[in-house]
Write a structure and sequence with these properties.
mainly alpha; Growth Hormone, Chain: A; Arc Repressor Mutant, subunit A; 2 domains; 77% helix
């Protein structure tokens, strides 16, 4: 959040210093309008995907779209003084930022729900990182804007550096796999259903009691460190149990385990429906 927010606010400050707010009421309103339409489109597509396929819809796709538009919004900055409409470039940048903000709100809420006793601290830490990144970007933008005229080689270098920072975050810090796991961590509508599914899988694949506990936490999205703390186990013990679970279920990753639990829910629903009919 610090790196992404810092990069965004830095470029946004340069847009403002470059005169985007002096294009007149119509130009600025056009910029905001285009950004709002882009945001509405992202939200609509996501909402439709979740409504039609709530368990199978992968939130990494909207995240990928946000990345691409963020790159486009930053990349268009040096071109704003080369015949390219500044309002459109700023609109793309602003729309991508609003979409990223929505995605981070979802992630923040999900992370806060991982461990309710510390949820408030997690939420505060996430919002603090958000504010800190924005502050750093604004200060850098104000400090460097006099030496970064639109269209100049230095502006192009700064734009490419900002893009590199965001792409690095996307590939190595907060990648699609992480987003996919986190945003699919939604509670079942039926109370206790998740526990029932885990118990059924543990019986079906003959997991030991301790393996069943580790499997339940893995299916909840917990990592090894959290499982160590909750079950008071060593890192080696947790990793060994995880390896045995993967072997018995014939899977190779935590995401595959989550898919097994979801598939168990589907099978159970289908069996219940068949029995009723």
């Amino acid at each position: 959040m610090i790196l992404w927010c810092g990069s965004y606010e830095f470029i946004r400050t340069l847009y403002i210093k470059g005169g985007i707010n002096q294009t007149g009421a119509f130009g600025y309103a056009t910029s905001l309008g285009i950004a709002t339409l882009f945001l509405c489109a992202v939200v609509a597509i996501t909402a439709i995907g979740l409504a039609l396929n709530p368990k199978g819809f992968d939130m990494s796709y909207p995240y990928r779209a946000v990345l691409l538009f963020s790159i486009l919004g930053i990349g268009l900055f040096p071109l704003s003084d080369m015949g390219f409409a500044p309002a459109i470039a700023h609109a793309v940048h602003l729309g991508a930022w609003q979409s990223f903000g929505l995605a981070m709100w979802v992630v923040t809420i999900v992370l806060s729900e991982y461990n309710p006793p510390t949820g408030t601290k997690v939420f505060a830490a996430a919002r603090g990182c958000w504010a800190l990144g924005g502050l750093i970007g604004i200060l850098l933008g104000r400090a460097l804007s006099p030496s970064l005229p639109l269209g100049g080689p230095l502006a192009i270098a700064v734009s490419l550096t900002s893009i590199l920072i965001i792409v690095t975050c996307y590939l190595f810090v907060f990648n699609e796999k992480v987003v996919s796991v986190l945003t699919r961590f939604f509670p079942d509508r039926t109370p206790g259903r998740f526990e029932q599914k885990c118990k059924a899988i543990a019986v079906e694949y003959r997991l030991s009691p301790r393996e069943a506990e580790v499997m339940r936490l893995l299916a909840r999205g917990r990592n090894v460190e959290v499982i160590m703390e909750e079950l008071t186990l060593s890192n080696a013990t947790v990793c060994t149990h995880r390896q045995h679970i993967y072997q018995k279920l014939d899977i190779h990753s935590q995401q595959e385990l989550i898919n097994v639990v979801e598939a168990a829910s589907v099978r159970k629903s289908e069996e219940t429906g068949d029995a009723a009919s």
